[in-house]
Amino acid sequence: MGTRNVPHGRVRNRGDLQAAYGQAQKLLSSQRYDVRRVVQNGDEVAVELEWGGVLAIAVPSMNLPAGHEMKAYVAMFLTFRDGKIVSQRNYDCYPPFEAAASHAMSSAGGVKTQSAENGNG
């Protein structure tokens, strides 16, 4: 199942995730994860969270300036074995980027930003 960012969805292994994390560190100046709810049933865990990331660089293809704060509402499903995550499925919902970019640019003082720390995404 895809999202606007990844229309056809994707499956990644540990190496892919590490590479993606490295790319995110270049793209984002900061990010945060606000966990709203965690539900556990044996080795299965469901997490509802809100993610926010501030762009370190502009993304012209999406008409987003550096400093723009991206947001996503996330449902994450984890399976554990022997205390380790063996699978993770994420379902991300992003508010429309164009509206968010327009709002950020029209806010008093220009680009809207929020201070946050880099997460362990």
Structural descriptors:
about 120 residues, alpha+beta, Nuclear Transport Factor 2, Chain: A, 4-stranded antiparallel sheet, 2 helices, globular, disordered C terminus
User: Whole-number average pLDDT?
Assistant: 79
Structural class: alpha+beta
The amount of beta strand, in percent, is: 35-45%
Shape: globular
**Topology as a string of helices (H) and strands (E):** HEEEEH
CATH class of one domain: Alpha Beta
The number of helices is: 2
Number of separate strands = 4
Q: Could you name the CATH topology of one domain?
A: Nuclear Transport Factor 2, Chain: A
The N- and C-terminal alpha carbons lie at a distance of: 20 Å
Indicate the percent of residues in helices.
Answer: 10-25%
**Largest beta sheet, briefly?**
4 strands, antiparallel
- Stretches where pLDDT is under 50 for at least 5 consecutive residues are 107-121
Strand order of the largest sheet: 1-2-3-4
Radius of gyration: 16 Å
CATH architecture of one domain: Roll
The protein's oligomeric status is single chain
Structure description:
This protein is α+β, with helices and mostly antiparallel strands. It has a domain at 30-106: Nuclear Transport Factor 2, Chain: A (Roll), CATH 3.10.450. The protein is 20% helix and 40% strand. It has helices at 14-27, 97-106, and strands at 28-41, 44-55, 69-81, 84-93. It has a 4-stranded antiparallel sheet. A hairpin with a 2-residue loop joins strand 3 (69-81) and strand 4. The chain starts with 13 loop residues before the first helix and ends in a 15-residue tail after the last helix. 7% of the residues are buried.
